Amino acid sequence: MTARLHVDVAVIGAGPGGLAAARAAAEGGARVVCLDLFAAAGGQYHMQPTQPESRFAQTPQVLSGRDAARAARSAGVEILTRTEVFWVAGTEDGGYCLSACQAGAEALSIRATTLVVASGAMERPLPFPGWTLPGVIGAGAAQRLLKTGTGALPVPGKAVLAGSGPFLMAVAQTFAKAGQPLAHFVEYRRPNPRATARLLARHLRKLAEAFGLLRDLRRSGAERHFGHIVTRALGKDRLEAVEIAPIDASGRPDPARVQRIEGVGTLAIGYGFQPVTDVTAALGADHGFDPALGGWHCIVDPATGASSRPGLYAAGEVSGIGGASPARLSGRIAGSHAAAAALGRAAPDAAIVAPLAAELAAARGFARGLAALYPPLPDLPLDLAPDEVLCRCEDVTLAEVRAAVADGARETFAVKMWTRAGMGPCQGRICGAAIAAELRRAGTRPEAAGFNRPHLPLRPTPLPVVRAALAAERGST
Amino acid sequence: MSALPRTAEVIVVGGGVVGLATALALAEAGLAPVVVEAKSFGGAVTGGSLAGIGAHMHGLPEYDLMRAACGLWRDLATDTGNPFEYRAQGQIGFILDPRDVASGETWVREERALGADCRMLTPAEASEVEPLLTGPIVAATFAPDTATVNPFLAARTLLRRACEKGARAFEHTPITALTVEDDRIRGVQTASGERIAAAHVVLAAGPWTANLAAMANVALPLVPRQAQCLASVRQPPDTLRRVISAVEDAGGVNSGYTQIQQAQSGQILFNTVTAPTATPPEAKDQIREVPPGFVVESIDMLLRLFPALAQIELLRSWVRFEAVSPDHRFLAGPLPVAGLWVCAGDNGSGYCRALMLGRYMAGRIGGGASLPDALIEQAGRLYDPARFGEVA
Ligand SMILES: Cc1cc2nc3c(=O)[nH]c(=O)nc-3n(C[C@H](O)[C@H](O)[C@H](O)COP(=O)(O)OP(=O)(O)OC[C@H]3O[C@@H](n4cnc5c(N)ncnc54)[C@H](O)[C@@H]3O)c2cc1C
Ligand SMILES: Cc1cc2nc3c(=O)[nH]c(=O)nc-3n(C[C@H](O)[C@H](O)[C@H](O)COP(=O)(O)OP(=O)(O)OC[C@H]3O[C@@H](n4cnc5c(N)ncnc54)[C@H](O)[C@@H]3O)c2cc1C
Fold first, then answer.
1. Cα separations (Å) of A27 from A46, A71, B294?
2. Backbone angle region of B348, left / alpha / beta, with phi > 0 → left and psi within -120 to 50 → alpha
3. What is the pTM of this model?
4. In this predicted structure, what is the pLDDT of residue B276?
């Protein structure tokens, strides 16, 4: 049996952006459902612990997430967790039909007049020598391990946190709060105190947060290596050692000054985030490419959250990486407009929405400033061996990708056809940045290389669930 | 990428498997063609193909040509060291309705009379040949020599080999005009305004071929038809061993079809269509999604035949556009403008025919002996673009 729902506004994602959108839409009088694949609402920022005795159970980030979910519910939002949206299609009456898989096994079909996509961000993995060794994980994954579950890293040995960007400091803070020793902190960029001070002077509200991050980085006890990069992860069957090197003036690691760290159990590595655009891209909304916004993102009108497609709104990281506060603000804006549009009302009261838009512009300004302090790495920072795997789902090596490019592949899609890179379960989400970097090396700009357009299903889904949901959409069973 | 040449002996418009096979045959004949592809090589229907290579149930009039076509793929695999996953998997034609047994038997009898190695199977024999095929079939046909190729890698092999033999190929180079003077083709013009002069132009642009021919005031009876497929996440090797297809009395795509096979990558590819999807002409220029009804039918058929696959996961789906002619055969040969040629109208099984058609076209254009005479005569009869009357 397929459960069916009819709503005015459907919201995909229950992170800061989605919860704010859902609540604003409900307060605007709409019937709202908010869907998230995680077990608890909150998204990345408000990641909820799974163990009651977790050290994180009472942190402000967790508590404010609980509050945001509670506020949305009391405004009338139905929040469905463990609900993965695997397909969205436009309907003939101009609305949307969502197909979801609940708890991995049940089909759910939802009709909505308007749709807000707040699908958030994911880590942007960049391959480096040894990146597929067990023990090498994403910085975000390390954070999740510490915040949820038992609150400790699963393997003994030193922990090394490496990559670039402000998020790295947030993860170091998580290590400190979890009481998990962190041996080394390796940041690609050198500190730029003057530019940082200038940015914070313009956004004084961020000052306490910034000091907290610095304090906790020190408290973590990690040896700090600014202007360094992990050049290699080594080990026989799993990670044992890590090599780091300072960055020279050209932005490349200096091979003469490689330093080896032995006895490493976990290397958490993070080069920033990229928007999760599968839903908005599948619906054919316009997307743009901007490295400062994490690369490909859904283009929206900041005053309304509207995408290029009627009835489709986007909020939070999917419309460009910016963090939790732009997510919340853009969520409120998109939610109010989505509700008004669904109910056939005039645009929401400008007196309410205009100040939000001003706040959003300021919050986005801060995010832009941060992105300028930590410019994302456009290319692969390291030379890889030809046999290094780029696409982990289909085991496609760098040499295979280069051969395809040499044979005339000039876009992401062509590389995919000729190598299978991006044809596996992740559908190019993980290897996309690396393939784009390779194409760039060969002279194709990322804007021209494009991205893998998603098709049914957005995520691998059991056949019976696909069948049940689509049969419901078709009106039969 | 090097700059577009100013002149060429022959220009092939379209870099799908048909255009690439034509370019290869022309290059082998010493005609140094230039191939221009609007987007990425093999990215249109070619890259969405199941690329089954077989003569079984494709009709008797074309049987010899199909056999030759299959042989050319086998030879290419041998000559190149098989970089495109050519595999003679064999094909099972399943029969669910007792009324269809007679047509299965007719196919087998007639193809055997022409020298084929096919035979009928009982349900028990069928599940020996394909262990997970435990659905309620009443009988099956079996053609052991049907093969499959990897559609991307096969196209890439043709492209590379054509270039090794003197062809030049340009992607992201759409042709927007044909230059005709005194009823003779003089060349083509690209979207960026560049011109290439040539004595011969071959239109091998799949469902876009009619639009191109119209640029030379030639009306071709080719229409696009939507086709689509589903793929599961990887399954262990040998989950499915054969190409599985439906046996239907009338045959042909319009009466409904099923094709199921496991790719070398492990993914299970499957589609079932009971009625063709309505395809407005402009659809081929849009990004389309599989219709929900197609998904339901395809899953139902897969699980009816292979109940053991009930819990596998769907990974992706795609939609492509085939070119269809009134009699469901290719249009391959000269058009009323001197020097202008067509090779299109695949009707859903052009992968198999591509190498054979490429040879035929190269022979017609260059005058060399590219196929045995009897086959050239047969192809001339079956594929003549003028067979529907005046096309200009
Ligand atoms: C791994 C990771 C860790 C992060 N940690 C921090 C941190 O510690 N501090 C910080 O300030 N920022 C952190 N961020 C940044 C974070 O993106 C923002 O702070 C904020 O959470 C963005 O809000 P959002 O609503 O846009 O997206 P998110 O919070 O990411 O919420 C998006 C939600 O959408 C859901 N979703 C997406 N697609 C579907 C689908 N098809 N079906 C159902 N549900 C779906 C996801 O499960 C997710 O819960 C992190 C980001 C990532 C990727
Ligand atoms: C799901 C599915 C399963 C199939 N299974 C089989 C099978 O098992 N066996 C089999 O034999 N066949 C099969 N086919 C059919 C087979 O794939 C096609 O017959 C074959 O690929 C046709 O190739 P083509 O080169 O004619 O067309 P296309 O691949 O469409 O190539 C035409 C090319 O022309 C280009 N073009 C268009 N306009 C212009 C322009 N103005 N300038 C320059 N270039 C232009 C296009 O971009 C395109 O790349 C299947 C098809 C599908 C969709």
1. 22, 10, 40
2. left
3. 0.95
4. 74
The bound ligand whose nearest atom lies closest to the alpha carbon of A417 is: 2
The pair of structure tokens assigned to A456 is 């049914």
The pLDDT of residue B368 is 82
Please report which ligand is nearest the Cα atom of A144: 1
d(CA A384, CA B354): 39
Contact B40 A413 (CB under 8 A): yes
Residue A57 pairs in a beta bridge with none
pLDDT on residue A40: 95
State whether residue B80 sits within 8 Å of chain A by CB. no
Inter-chain residue contact B290 with A456, CB threshold 8 Å: yes
Rounded to whole angstroms, how far apart are CA atoms A19 and A328? Answer: 8
Of A408, A425, A464, which is closest to B41 when you measure between CB atoms?
A408
Residue A102 three-state SS: strand
Q: Is the CB of B294 under 6 A from ligand 2?
A: no
Expressed in angstroms and rounded, the spacing between residue B392 Cα and the centre of ligand 1 is 60
The pair of structure tokens assigned to B168 is 């030049």
| Interatomic CA distance for residues A376 and A356, integer angstroms | 28
How does strand A396-397 pair with strand A389-391?
A: antiparallel
A418 contacts in chain B (CB < 8 Å): 152-153, 156
Distance CA B272, CA B44 (A): 20
Q: For B172-182, how does the pLDDT look when each residue is reduced to its tens digit (9 = 90+)?
A: 999 999 999 99
Backbone Cα Rg of chain A: 22
Pick the residue whose CA is nearest to atom 18 on ligand 2: B350
Contact B244, B130 (CB under 8 A): yes
Q: CA A64 to CA A323: how far, in whole Å?
A: 15
Residue A298: phi, psi to the nearest 5? -80, 130
- Neighboring chain A residues of B156 at a CB cutoff of 8 Å: 404, 407, 418
Which ligand 1 atom is nearest residue A86's CA? 41
Asked whether residue A472 carries a pLDDT value surpassing 90, the answer given is no
Question: Per-residue pLDDT tens for B60-94?
Answer: 999 999 999 999 999 999 999 999 999 999 999 99
H-run or E-run covering A197: helix A193-202
Residue A31 CB partners (closer than 8 Å, separation 6+): A6, A7, A8, A9, A76
Chain A residue nearest residue B171, CA to CA? A408
Instruction: Write the ipTM.
Output: 0.94
By the 8 A CB rule, do B264 and B83 touch? no
pLDDT at position B250, please? 54
Closest-CA residue to B353 (of B159, B121, B149): B149
The residue type of A298 is C
Task: Tell me the sheet residues that pair with A259.
Answer: A244
Ligand 1 centre from A456 Cα, in Å? 22
- In DSSP terms, which residues pair with A186 in a beta bridge? A162, A225
Please tell me whether residue A236 adopts helix, strand or coil conformation.
coil
B84, B295, B320, best to mutate vs chain A, most A CBs in 10 Å: B295
Angle (CA) A316-A322-A323 rounded to 5° is 75
Alpha-carbon distance A266 to A354, whole Å? 46
DSSP, residue by residue, A416-477: HHHH-TT-STTTTTTTHHHHHHHHHHTT--HHHH------S-SS-EEHHHHHHHHHHHHT--
| Structure-block tokens of residue A253 | 């690691």
Q: For residue A326, give the nearest of A283, A369, A285 by alpha carbon.
A: A369
**Distance in angstroms between the alpha carbons of the first and the last residue of chain B:** 37
Answer yes or no: are the C-beta atoms of A297 and A319 closer than 8 Å: yes
